[in-house]
Amino acid sequence: xxxxxxxxxxxxxxxxxxxxxxxxxxxxxxxxxxxxxxxxxxxxxxxxxxxxxxxxxxx
Length: 59
Known about the structure:
Layout: E1 2-5, E2 13-17, E3 43-44, H1 53-56
Antiparallel strand pairs: 1-2, 1-3
């Protein structure tokens, strides 16, 4: 799961990046240094899950 701020711009910043996020084994994730979102900032939310992947994509 990856959430980006202002993707594709010179001010791009990754807010959260956990490559193999498991919704069934949730735990606390340490976040980086806090920052302020400003008017006009764009967030790229995580891509939607692939249908049926919850059971077939486990490693």
